[in-house]
Specification:
Keywords: Oxidoreductase. It holds the Pfam family GFO_IDH_MocA_C3. GO terms for molecular function: nucleotide binding; oxidoreductase activity. The chain has 264 residues and is of the alpha/beta class. The protein has two domains: 93 residues, Rossmann fold, CATH 3.40.50.720; 148 residues, 2-Layer Sandwich (Dihydrodipicolinate Reductase, domain 2). It has an eight-stranded mixed β-sheet, covered by helices on one side. Strands 3-4-5 form a three-stranded parallel β-sheet, with helices on one face. The protein has a two-stranded parallel ribbon with strand order 1-2. α3 runs parallel beside α4. The relative contact order is 0.12.
Length: 264
């Protein structure tokens, strides 16, 4: 937020008081143990609340902030359940406030570039696409109260990983016509997910999401998209975006990136 002109961080709330205090001191703001305490103390000084809590706590915190008349940014997913999501939507509607889900892939440079290629039809119509988002197995002791290890609190890779790519694809192609899903389970938890979608225009989209790789396996995301007149591929591990033309030639693409102030 310090990079956003006109924005000011006024308070931080966390049940881990030492963490809240450290962040507050670093950014020159006040710190609190609960959201209620922060809302009560800061009142009209707050225009918006950014909710960065574990997934299962999103609905309660977002609904509370909206009812108190604050705009809300909430980490993805919006909520762990449909009922929780509907409560948030209703609270935003009743309060006349904005509620934005932080689906970052819509703003990621390589994905913004892909969206523009599809929108402008530079390679003709999209015929098929494959997206993936994979990482190492969740390890005990790496998240607060083990929430990432509990599917009833994190929602599995479907809610933590898959949702990134599905949101991006829906934002570009609209609602899917059909889908079929298969998954791999480990100790009763879904660990790896493969979903095949069909979108309008008979566009076939495959999305893979998993966190069952060895602990030394690096995080990786990317896409491969086939068009009438070529193909486009992005791989995060090599930070490369490559365009393959129908005439047999290919080229590395220089993806436009936003300017980051020196203070970053």
């Amino acid at each position: 937020y310090r990079l956003i002109e006109g924005a000011k961080l006024t308070g931080v709330a966390d049940v881990r008081a030492e963490l809240a205090e450290r962040i507050a001191r670093e950014h020159g703001c006040r710190f609190y143990a609960t959201l209620d305490e922060m809302l009560d103390d800061l009142g009209d000084e707050i225009d918006a609340i950014d909710i960065c809590l574990p997934t299962y706590l999103h609905a309660e915190a977002a609904e509370k902030a909206l009812i108190r008349g604050k705009n809300v940014i909430v980490e993805k997913p919006l909520a762990l359940t449909v009922e929780g999501g509907r409560r948030i939507v209703e609270a935003a509607h009743n309060a006349g406030k904005e509620c934005m889900v932080a689906h970052v892939m819509r703003f990621w440079p390589e994905y913004v570039f892909l969206r523009e290629v599809i929108r402008k039809g530079e390679l003709g119509a999209l015929s098929s696409a494959s997206f993936w988002r994979i990482t190492q197995r969740r390890k005990r002791g790496t998240s607060w109260q083990e929430w990432l290890y509990d599917p009833s609190q994190c929602g599995s890779p479907a809610m933590d990983l898959h949702i990134h790519d599905l949101d991006f694809v829906r934002s570009v192609l609209g609602e899917p016509i059909s889908f079929a899903a298969r998954g791999r389970t480990f100790e009763g938890r879904i660990e790896h997910l493969f979903v095949q979608y069909t979108f309008p225009g008979e566009v076939a989209v495959h999305i893979e999401s998993g966190w069952d790789f060895p602990l030394n396996y690096p995080f990786e995301m990317g896409y491969r998209c086939v068009f009438e007149q070529g193909a486009l591929e992005f791989q995060s591990r090599t930070s490369s975006t490559r365009l393959y033309h129908s005439d047999g030639s290919s080229e590395e693409v220089s993806v436009p990136r936003p300017e980051i102030p020196d203070s970053a």
